[in-house]
Amino acid sequence: MMDRADIKGVFYMHERARPVRIYIYPFTAKIPLMDARLLDVVIGLSGFLILIVMLAVLPMVLVAGVAYLAAIVIFILFLSGAGYLVNDKIT
Asked: Beta strand 2-3 with 10-15: parallel, antiparallel or unpaired?
């Protein structure tokens, strides 16, 4: 029986050259994650930082109007994707 360090709580036993997974935690058990409010604050601040960086960098590369529009679209996509992932992990 060996413990895989990359997956916590999963042990593997080899029987006849075929691995058998043994889970310590039941599938219905929720492993406590970071508090949802704190996670929202971290995502919001990182999204704001991405927006500021994009507003500073993109006008150097693209035409100003297109650059500002692209920065806002990137910001919206980042927040949407992060919200989707957080919602998927928490619920």
From this structure: antiparallel
Domain extent, residue 65, equals 32-91
Is residue 55 within 8 Å of residue 62, measured between CB atoms?
A: no
The answer to whether the predicted template modeling score (pTM) of the entire model surpasses 0.70 is: no
Residue 20 and residue 43 in one domain: no
Q: Are residues 16 and 49 in the same domain?
A: no
Question: What is the chain's pLDDT, residue by residue, as a tens digit (91 residues)?
Answer: 444 445 555 555 555 555 555 555 555 555 566 677 788 888 889 999 999 999 999 999 999 999 999 999 999 999 998 888 877 776 6
For residue 30, the SS3 value is coil
For residue 1, give both structure tokens: 């029986």
